[in-house]
Amino acid sequence: VVTIRVPIVEHRDASYDILIGRGLLGDLAPLLGRHCAAAAYAVITDSHLAAPYAAPLVARLREAGLAAEVFAFAAGEWNKTRETWAALCDRMLAHHVGRDAAVLALGGGVVGDVAGFVAATYLRGIPYVQLPTSLLAMIDSSIGGKTGVDVPAGKNLLGAFHQPRLVVADLDVLATLPATQLAAGVAEAVKHGVIADARYFEFLESEHSAIRQKDPVAIERLVGRSVELKADVVARDERESGLRAVLNFGHTIGHAVEATSKFEVLHGEAVAIGMAYEARLAERLEIAEPGTATRITRVLDGFGLPQHIPSGTGIDDLLAAMRHDKKARSGAIRFALPRRIGVMYGNAGGWTEPVSEAVVREVLAPGTGSAA
Ligand SMILES: NC(=O)c1ccc[n+]([C@@H]2O[C@H](COP(=O)([O-])OP(=O)(O)OC[C@H]3O[C@@H](n4cnc5c(N)ncnc54)[C@H](O)[C@@H]3O)[C@@H](O)[C@H]2O)c1
Ligand SMILES: [Zn+2]
């Protein structure tokens, strides 16, 4: 078992461990006792994971003498909503889940975000543990304490910061993760390489077939290094006032693609598309070294990830979605951009660069003539 600590600087009591290993869900009770003791556990999960993972987990917790109950909701990004949050809270209230209980978020990023938001708000906040089951959740969404739901106006617009007490990534569960979901998770790993570690990016370039085959050594290196990189950024900026903005590389355009596709495009796929365009934007602005975008699109290709805006997507709709995104400030759209592989661009003004809509439009639809 590898342990990576997230030292929350602002709030030392909020520091927590991320455990990475195999078979960890089979013996969770002692870990809960040490890191998140509670009178009862509300296991929040989705409909794909309830039977194969949540039911056996609850059975084992009960064998160990712990009270536990499953609260499942229908799988899918389109269910990451206020309605799901409200229904889960109502069901927990009906079950008399008390203030001395804790939430276990067992699932991908959708479960983690919704369950974390339930934990942040239920009876004004109860502790929770992240039990990520998708690659994306293990390396990205379970770390950092951002929780929330999507609303019609955009993604993640309602939420709260609520740090987990513990994150347990049991690599064994990746055996059942579909290939497209694995690739979607790798998109966030590519992002980690671009923002902070050129050697890690090279590993993703050279080991793509081992990773796609879920080779245990390759997967352990991927999860371990991505978790270190994300934990390091988050620990230095708990509430996204500065440095943490680099994690949004690929996400300004990515979130717009995800939302305008009505969630036909997976989050990780949308991030891949977003990174391809934002890297070209960085080159266009002479922020990124020439060739940066080509290396990024090649590595995405190696994982079978998409790099183009889906046909039929309106550029105006994308721009409107970006304007709605909470990262936008009036006037221009702000982007976190690479200088080269492994190094992000920053200046006295921070880690994001305002870009005029005309230039964004030109990069999204080359040749449409609105050069600026
Ligand atoms: N909070 C954050 O900091 C943060 C960071 C990145 C992404 N996110 C959010 O994460 C979400 C995407 O997460 P995701 O890609 O994990 O999506 P997801 O939770 O929808 O999971 C993807 C699919 O895989 C299934 N699945 C998960 N684990 C499985 C397993 N072990 N075996 C079989 N099937 C499995 C799920 O049931 C689901 O159908 C987005 O909503 C995104 O906004 C949040
Ligand atoms: Zn993401």
Explain what this protein looks like in three dimensions:
By secondary structure, the chain is α/β, with parallel strands linked by helices. The chain has helices at 28-35, 50-63, 82-94, 109-121, 135-141, 179-196, 198-206, 208-212, 216-236, 251-260, 267-284, 292-302, 315-324, 357-364; strands spanning 2-6, 16-21, 40-46, 67-73, 101-107, 128-132, 146-151, 154-161, 166-170, 333-335, 338-340, 343-344, 353-355. The strands form 4 sheets. The chain has a 7-stranded mixed beta sheet with strand order 1-2-9-6-5-3-4, sandwiched between helices. Strands 7-8 form a two-stranded antiparallel sheet. Helix 10 packs across helix 11 (267-284), helix 11 (267-284) packs antiparallel against helix 12 and helix 11 (267-284) crosses helix 14. The longest helix is centred in the middle third of the chain and has 21 residues, at 216-236. It is globular and about 65 Å long. The mean pLDDT is 93. Nicotinamide-adenine-dinucleotide binds next to helix 4, helix 5, strand 8, helix 6 and helix 11.
Number of β-strand runs: 13
- Assess the beta-strand content as a share of residues: 15-25%
Q: Which regions have little confidence, pLDDT < 50, spanning 5+ residues?
A: none
Envelope shape: globular
- Ligand roster: nicotinamide-adenine-dinucleotide, zinc ion
**Rounded mean pLDDT score:** 93
Largest sheet: 7 strands, mixed
Radius of gyration: 20 Å
Which class do the helix and strand fractions yield?
Answer: alpha/beta
Order of helices and strands: EEHEHEHEHEHEEEHHHHHHHHEEEEH
Strands in their spatial order, largest beta sheet: 1-2-9-6-5-3-4
Helix content: 40-55%
Q: What is the CA–CA distance across the termini? A: 53 Å
Number of helices: 14
